[in-house]
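Reposting from the mailing list since nobody answered there.

I have sequence plus structure tokens for a pair of proteins and want to know whether others read the tokens the same way I do. The first protein:
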Amino acid sequence: MKFRILLEPDEDGVLVATVPSLPGCVSQGSTRDEALHNVREAIEGYVESLRERDEPIPPPIREEVVDVAL
């Protein structure tokens, strides 16, 4: 499955990784690679928790990229 991840630096320069389609699924890291690794683990735990409670798993994302000349 694919999930959209938002990476944003906080006021201390730590990268915060948020998963919009999984409310409350947030992680962080001091580097981009660390933040992505940590958020993957968070997603796996989140989805496992949904399965244990027989709750639906959000559908994978479908995304298009559009080039715009400015």
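The second protein, same order (residues first, tokens after):
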Amino acid sequence: MGDTVGDGKLIDFIEQVSGGVHLRVEEDLGNGFVRLRSEEAERRQAKHDIRCVEDIIIELLRNARDARARAIYIATSKEGELRSITVIDDGQGIPPTLHESIFEPRVTSKLETMVMDDWGIHGRGMALYSIRSNVTEAKVACSSEGLGSSLSIKVDTSLLPEKADQSTFPTLERDETGKLSAAKGPHNMVRFALEFALVHRRDPEIYYGSPSEIAATLLETGHRKITNDELLFCDNINELPISRRLATSADAAELMENCQQIGLSISERTAHRILNHQITPLSALFERARTGRTKNTTTDLTKDSRGLKLAKDDVEAFSREMERAFEFLAERYYLSLTDAPKVKVKGDVITVRFPIEKE
């Protein structure tokens, strides 16, 4: 019989034959007890933290809330067993250098305090690590400091379960004080999001729907909040808050591209439907609960939603006219054009941008 390995040398033996790649144990305590390495303990804790898809919704909502978001947009869809979730917020944002680091264990922005809320302790730096440990993909779709965040998650629901009924809006009831609560219905993703909204009321506002509904909502939000300077003089939409970027879309193709850049996957046909107001923007969940409107209102298809279309030759001719008109300002303020005036048509608005330099 070959040599045996003593208890005291077990760890050295395992590390020698495995090269340390698969080693999970820090110390053999004897009698079947071991002390796990911290990485393995964290991995096991992370697996325990997320038990279903609905848990992911709560953790992402808490993250966005703690980033001081005033609005949170949840877009979700499913194809076969693959559930896609994108959560967009207008909070503090994440510097690009930290897009990967935030998914590491113990990475948190709450250095001084952790948050205790209705869902337990938050701020240990484990939430995003727990999510990534349980899903097929978890990434920052886009984010920069001060511009908000978009996180995209893909889940294999054959491995991480979710409620079978994800379409039913919960039944709401008021208690003797008039406070609303979700009384009946499956404990699905929309219920988790609604209960979060009921706790926080309008701070932050929470929107929940399909990618196309969230895109329509962000487009409307952008049109309300974007400034003329942002619309006319921003060369790079990545410099704009994420919640305003879709408002810069001149046509369906650009809207589709801008959606993809913030983690919303829609087709060009869907983009056309959004621009033609055939997909209605969402109301916030708290508002839907307060007014009893659990479904979106229907679109008035009798409304003329056709955007203005200009022929390419007409746009070029108009640009030349604007170049001649610009001479009035050029002479008085010692300006010169660095390029031809840029004519942009969006909906029923024509904007002209004059790239200039001072002489």
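Reply #1 (J.P.):
I read it the same way you do. Residues 7-36 form one domain.
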